[in-house]
């Protein structure tokens, strides 16, 4: 199972991550706060690298197996 991401997208906004994972804003920030989902901060903007999202999903799939 793969999350459809544009190959030109290097870093995702929190709303994009929310849509990709179908989670609330609170839950996405909770995953970032708990360091389960890696992110970077540029000024006041929070971005999640596309690779970090894929890694998070892969890790969740491994734990579920």
Q: How does this structure look, described?
A:
- The longest helix is centred in the C-terminal third of the chain and has 15 residues, at about 50-65.
- The chain has helices at about 15-20, 25-35, 50-65, and strands spanning about 10, 40, 45-50.
- Helices cover about 50% and strands about 15% of the residues.
- The protein is globular and about 40 Å long.
- It has 3 helices and 3 strands.
- It has a 3-stranded antiparallel sheet.
- The model has no long low-confidence stretch (mean pLDDT about 90).
- It is an alpha+beta fold.
Secondary-structure map with pairings?
Layout: E1 11-12, H1 14-21, H2 25-33, E2 40-42, E3 45-49, H3 50-64
Antiparallel strand pairs: 1-3, 2-3
Strand numbers in spatial order across the main sheet: 1-3-2
- How much helicity do the residues have? 40-55%
Mean pLDDT across residues: 91
Q: In angstroms, what is the radius of gyration?
A: 11 Å
What would you call the shape?
globular
Largest sheet: 3 strands, antiparallel
Secondary-structure element pattern, one letter each? EHHEEH
Count of beta strands: 3
